[in-house]
Amino acid sequence: MQDVSEAMIRAIFKRAAEPTALLVTITAEGLETPIRASSDPDGTESRGDHFPYFPFTFGWGGAAADEPVRGATLEIGNTDGEIALAVRTITGAPLATVEVVRTASPDVVELAMVDAKVSDVEVDDPRVTAQIIPKNFEDEPACKARYIMARTPGLV
Q1: What ranges make up the beta strands (E) of 2-126?
Q2: Which of 16, 122, 133, 140 could lock onto 117 through a cystine, CB 3.0 to 4.6 A?
Q3: Pick from 17, 15, 31: nearest CA to 104
């Protein structure tokens, strides 16, 4: 669970919603500078970095019985070819960070998904599509352990 600021909580419950922006940063080997995008049409300056406006959307797949956690699809508009050119220079496995900021206070990150693995990047003019892989909870130490009543009586 991630805490949000008191200002963000007030903004959520206002009659007129306070504007927020989604910031996407993609890093990988081979990239001279990270790919940055903002959902704010004016772009966003946050923590000393410029996030230019690129139209992007997320598609969230629902869960299924055989696959309880599915990834998301990130689609970025390749308006001037800059994103496609940057994607073609990637040599390693890319990572994506998605952050929510209030436009009134863009240096304060309210919510963040940090260093999510990215796979299957497709360049199809006029857009670039990537799959964001969810965290594998089987890699978590608690999920690897077997709880046997004789060894862990307090969990009954």
Answers
A1: 20-27, 35-38, 44-46, 49-51, 56-60, 72-77, 95-102, 105-124
A2: 133
A3: 17
Q: Report the alpha-carbon distance of residue 30 to residue 94 in Å, rounded.
A: 10
CATH topology (fold) of 6-155: Thrombin, subunit H (2.40.10)
Neighbours of 134 (CB within 10 A): 15
Distance, CA of 9 to CA of 130 (rounded, Å):
31
Pairwise CA distance, residues 8 & 80, whole Å: 34
pLDDT in the model for residue 47: 95
Domain ranges of the chain: 6-155
Q: pLDDT by residue (tens digit) across 64-83?
A: 666 666 778 888 887 777 88
Closest to 129 (Cα-Cα) out of 116, 119, 140: 119
Q: What is the pTM of this model?
A: 0.74
Residue with tokens 């594998």: 136
